[in-house]
Amino acid sequence: MNLKWKITLLVCTFFLRNNVVNAGSNGHFRIFGGKKTIIERHPWMVSLQFPLIGHFCAGSLINKDTVITAAHCLNHPLLKPTSVLLGTADQSGSGTTVYIKTYKLHENFSVENADENHVKANNDIAFIKLEEDVKFSKKIQPIKLPEQDAKIAKGTSLVVAGWAKTSPDGLTSKVLRDAKVTAASHARLCDSDDKLCAGNRKSGVCEGDSGGPLELNGTLVGIVSFGEHDCVKSGDPSVYANVAFFRTWIKNEAGV
Questions:
Q1: What's a Pfam family in this record (predicted)?
Q2: Is residue 183 within 8 Å of 158, Cβ to Cβ?
Q3: CB-based contact 83:100 (threshold 8 Å)
Q4: Domain span including residue 165
Q5: Residue 191: what are its φ and ψ, rounded to 5°?
Q6: 196 part of a folded domain
Q7: Residue among 47, 210, 225, 238 flagged as catalytic
Q8: Which entry of 124, 178, 194, 209 is annotated as an active-site residue?
């Protein structure tokens, strides 16, 4: 790689880390609290790998060659993920790397300011097609999808997983973590059917693994989308793309 391209990639890296999807500082999230977990409990977990950066977003494997993630993870104008890492809970450990063939963002994806503390992402869903089929094992399995427009009742216990901070202001861990959260309603943040709110003052999503799964008994019900930086103090829930709302879109566009 010549010097010109190295400089270009370094500039891209700077902008990617400081202006994810042009969504502002609240546009990218991490799991905090919760506990360390093993990949066998979330074998659909996928790490999106970016040039020079490595892991920067998560996703969920839904069949042998398709990953579901957040649209804002793929919307940066300068830098795109080139591969995914599967089958490992440890970012510094071994796993299976598969290159990305193509991807598609929802055609109505958009980002706007909800208020001075929140960035709102609408229709924040995308799918990735892989260059080759993955081989299923105990550590690599697809997650189930919900029925179109299936409802999640307020108070339902859910699980969010990702590579994580252990506190809102802590350093990012390379080890997979999961946390229990509770489905919630929020008139300002979850103001349309494409969004699902869930939160927990002791654990949940503040900054980091955008695109990762919100799970209910092994079913993908949400995709980490946006929230408040200091969600512990604010008490606001985090917001997820509501997968059931997009079930027909996934079938028609991704063929799954």
A1: Trypsin
A2: yes
A3: yes
A4: 3-10+27-254
A5: -100, 10
A6: yes
A7: 210
A8: 124
Whether 210 sits among the annotated catalytic residues: the reply is yes
Domain assignment present for residue 21? The answer is: no
Considering the domain boundaries, does residue 86 fall inside one? yes
What are the two backbone dihedrals, phi and then psi, of residue 160, each rounded to the nearest 5 degrees? -115, 140
* SS3 of residue 231 by DSSP: helix
Kindly name the residue from 72, 76, 106, 118 that is annotated as catalytic. Answer: 72
**Number of compact structural domains in the chain:** 1
Are the beta carbons of 45 and 140 closer than 8 angstroms?
no
Cα separation, 229 vs 27, in Å, equals 9
At residue 150, what is the residue type? A
pTM for the model stands at: 0.85
Is 124 catalytic? The answer is yes
- Residue 110 identity: S
**Residue 35: which CATH number?**
2.40.10.10
Q: Along the 256 residues of the chain, how does pLDDT read in single tens digits?
A: 443 334 334 434 444 444 443 333 334 445 556 688 999 999 999 999 999 888 889 999 999 999 999 999 999 888 899 999 999 999 887 899 999 999 999 999 999 876 666 678 999 999 999 999 999 999 999 999 999 999 999 999 999 998 865 555 555 567 898 888 899 887 677 889 999 999 876 655 554 478 999 999 999 999 999 865 545 555 678 889 999 999 999 999 999 9
What is the distance between the alpha carbons of residues 60 and 143, in angstroms, rounded to a whole number?
A: 7
> Per the domain annotation, does 81 fall within a domain?
yes
